[in-house]
UniProtKB/TrEMBL annotation:
InterPro entries: HAD-like_sf, HAD-SF_hydro_IA, HAD_sf, Pyr-5-nucltdase. This is Pyrimidine 5-nucleotidase. SUPFAM superfamilies: HAD-like. Transmembrane segments: none annotated. NCBIfam families: HAD-SF-IA-v3 (TIGR01509), Pyr-5-nucltdase (TIGR01993). The lineage of its organism: Eukaryota, Viridiplantae, Streptophyta, Embryophyta, Tracheophyta.
Amino acid sequence: MDTARRIAGGKYECLLFDMDDTLYPLSSGLNLACRKNIIDYMLEYLHIEESKVAKMCLDLYKEYGTTMAGLKVLGYEFDNDHFHAYAHGRLPYEKLKPDPVLRNLLLSMPQRKIIFTNADQAHVVKVLNRLGLEDCFEGIICFETLNPPKQINHMDDCFSSNSQILCKPSVEAFEAAIRIANVDPKKTIFFDDSVRNVASGKAAGLHTVIVGRSDLVPSADHALNSIHNIKEALPEIWEIEEGIQQQMIQPKAAAMVHA
């Protein structure tokens, strides 16, 4: 809150970052590995016909934002934590390496920085640790944030697993994230690799950046081939009074030394 007040005169006060395929490249292979795990889960635990499962997985992802959300809408019952543990628990996290370049960029930004992802918290923690970015963000808005466990009673227990999941790219998910983070969307930039997520972010009033491509897409204000290009594309992030910026960076650096 103090930081927000100190940069209140700047163009931006908060940066919202998607994580997967945004803070690290799609070429890491985690995306494909995760999709295979989800398909295997659908086969093993939901007993969906093998000839249909791959197309169904992709179609539900396209229509509902995540395959998991689509499965819930269709009435499949399963435990959310079990699904996430299966989809993410066997990912090749070793393919992610520390990214000191991105770390230095993030730490040099004077604004609040928050992760906004559809993934579960355990996955977020693993990825940030592998990238060496675990202390670069003020907070995480993830699956559990948007879909907290409901207080249920015996009357509605059997229906609880069918409840609709709130996730990107629904504009409602963005509005919830904006409320949770307590940000002014007009002073917030959203970074994501998904065209449809960028479109929903723009609809919610955010400044938007598409990551992982050089061409602008509808609703994107900027395009980044890589998150590493952020300073060249958005120098205005660093355009605050130099003395204030130095004042904010130095205590952070000192804190890291003692950590």
